[in-house]
Design goal:
Radius of gyration: 17 Å
Structural class: alpha+beta
Number of strands: 14
Strand content: 25-35%
Bound molecules: uridine-5'-diphosphate
CATH superfamily of the largest domain: ATP-grasp fold, B domain
Amino acid sequence: MKNQLIYSGKAKDIYATDDENVIISVYKDQATMLNGARKETIDGKGMLNNQISSFIFEKLNVEGIKTHFIKQISDNEQLNKKVDIIPLEVVLRNVAAGSFSKRFGVGEGLALENPIVEFYYKKDELNDPFINDEHVQFLNIASEEEIAYLKEETRRINKLLKEWFAKIGLQLIDFKLEFGRDAQGNIILADEFSPDNCRLWDVDGNHMDKDVFRRDLGSLTAAYQVVLDKLKELA
Ligand code: UDP
C-alpha cells in the first residue's frame, strides 16, 4: 500500500500508493522555524498533529468544505487525495500577532474588526515573500476568479473554525492554509490544520500553538495534547 517516498517536507513525508490519485501523509516529530534554520525533534508531535488535523478536516468535510482528507490510517499517517499544491500560503488573521504586529507596528492581541486575508509566495529560496493579488496573477499562480475563490473559502473555513475553537475556550488568532488542484482541476483545501500553522490562545492568554516552540514557553506537546483533548469534547 505505502509505495515510494515522493516528497519529504519539514513536517511531513508524502508516499505514493497503488492508487495514483491517493497519497499517504506521514507526520514527523520535527519542529522547524525561520525557514528550517532552527530544527528540533519533538517526540509525539507528529502523532498529535495528525490527530488534530484529521479531526478538523473530517469536520470540514462534513460541513461541505472540499478537502484532500480521506481518512486517518494510523497514529501518524493519513490518506489524502493527491493534489498539485498551489504555491501560496493563505493566511487569515482575526487578531494581530506575529509578523502582522511587527510589519504594521500594532500590539499583539488587537482584534481586527474584519478578518484580513494575506498571501505569501511559497518559495523557500525567497523566504516566502508577502505578495498581493496582482503578483499572484503575474506569477501565473492563480487567476482572478481563483483568487476570489481562495479568499472566500478561507473566510468560510475561518467562520467554522473560530466557532469550534470558541466552544472549547480557545481563541483562533490566525492561521495558514494551503490549497491544491486535484486530478479534475478542482481547487480543494490541502496540507494540514494544526497548532503548527495557527495561533490559539486560551482564556488566560496562554499560547497553545507553535509559539510555545518559537518563544521557548515550555512543553510544545503538552500544549498540543490539551488542544486535542479539548477538540474531542466537540465530537
Ligand atoms: N504560518 C505558517 N507557516 C509559515 C508562516 C506562518 O503556518 O511559514 C502561520 C503561523 O503559525 C501563524 C500564521 O501563519 O498562525 C501567521 O504567521 P505570521 O505571518 O504572523 O508569521 P510568524 O510570526 O509565525 O513568523
